[in-house]
Amino acid sequence: MRESSTKCVLGALEVERGFAPLELSRSGRPAATSVHPSSFERTDTQPEAVSAGHPLRPAGTEETAVLRLGVLEVTRIGRVRGSSVGLEPLKASWQLPGMPRSYVTLDAVDTAEGRLELRRRGEGDFMISVAGRVLMTTRLTRSEQALAIRGCEPIAGRAAPRVLIGGLGLGMTVRAALDVLPASAHVTVAELSASVVTWCGGPAAPASCAALDDPRVEVIVGDVTDRIREVARDAARPRFDAILLDLYVGPGPVRGADPLYGREITERVADALAPGGVYAVWGEAPYAPFEKLLRRVGPARCHSVNAGGVRHVVFVATRPARG
Ligand SMILES: C[S@@+](CC[C@H](N)C(=O)[O-])C[C@H]1O[C@@H](n2cnc3c(N)ncnc32)[C@H](O)[C@@H]1O
Predict the structure, then answer these.
(1) Is the pLDDT of residue 5 over 80?
(2) pTM, rounded to two decimals
(3) Is the distance from the beta carbon of residue 135 to the nearest atom of ligand 1 less than 6 Å?
(4) Is 55 inside a domain boundary?
(5) 239 and 210 in a common domain
């Protein structure tokens, strides 16, 4: 999982009718605060409709107001009630000035891991979360791009390189891979969630500059390890020049055999790679047992990536050109 989203924005907060006390919660510690009408500052979408600070709008008009509480800003969207000054609250959110706005949920599905949600903030800032935790965000993409560059650059000069990418997310890795690969490349993307594929090719397509529309890309909905095994056991199938993995979590300690980064699948990766092919894996942090295991593929290294305040890693192993 990726690090959680900014601590300053907690998302939507319901405001009680008539400026009742607001419960503002920050980093899990609630702080009760009373909002008095005198601290209420209006920000009108149609200022000409305002007289003496009171809303003289037709009933039902939607409007936005901003409450300032010290440095805290509460945005309140309401509907004008009759001819009175009151607003029937619709929704409210709060933020510190200068900090990013809250996300809005564009779509959501229930999965075995919890609710999978596509969220957007402003025009071009997307996030996929699962069970409330950030799975992928367009705010921090350096390590996902580094994965593609480390994995694809060494084989980009080949005649028609074949690349397998496991885990689509918001398509940042796919985009970066396409940017370094030639027009003759073929990129297979294996993604477990059909919803993620729909989102990445639909409402979240701007995040990857419509990577899925690129004619070099083929998307399959399924487990990437199945595709690796299929190719590994069939000598007649073309091998991959690069295999890139960025899944729910990177390599680390697990109980029992690890189906994603354990010995068996790592050996299948070696079988599925062409000579000189590259295996690149996104990780949260260095993990020595995985680096050791990667030697079954070939010479291996763990590269640290400064991903904007946090450090992630990219493990890279290269299959020997002969043997
Ligand atoms: C962290 S996101 C990938 C982010 C991606 N690199 C990007 O640039 O946006 C992980 C993705 O891997 C998918 N996933 C997890 N396990 C998988 C598996 N075994 N096979 C295929 N996809 C998988 C998840 O559904 C999710 O979309």
Answers:
(1) no
(2) 0.74
(3) yes
(4) yes
(5) yes
